[in-house]
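Before we proceed, please read the two lines closing this message. Let me know whether the structure tokens fit the sequence:

…
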Amino acid sequence: IGIVSRLTDQKGFDLIAYIMDELCQDSVQIVALGTGDERYENMFRHFDWKYHGKVSAQIYYDESMSHRIYAASDAFLMPSLFEPCGLSLRYGTLPIVRETGGLKDTVEPYNEFEGTGTGFSFSNYNAHEMLSTIRYAEHIYYDKKREWNKMVDRAMAKDFSWSNSARQYEEMYNWLIGE
């Protein structure tokens, strides 16, 4: 699971702090890249020390490293309290997000019955709801690999580029003026 972020309250790191010991008992590895509030920097340093080999704290920011983490991770965790921006899904790294702002707009929650979705989400700002969502993602990753790979394909096919947005606006304007 990759985390690339400013380490601030807005990004939901209090939730991660609350469940990190439980999460590290699972079959996951976590890499965090970023800087921010000292308490969150120290939190990740602590968990890197405590669970070395399972948690890697990279307390700095480097653009090329962020791209490598996105590309190498299977999932990306962003449990934001609020988030105006969405996510790019171009790397095929499936997001695990809280349903808020742009994250809700860009991540379609996985629906195993309909075979749809581009990631995993939870609605309440609650650490154990987040942990349950992470564990559900783990289950799909380990036990339903074909479904996981289909979701990766769907995520990578999404086009959130400005050219796509401009085309949609043009279509809407043409419809409004009756063309």
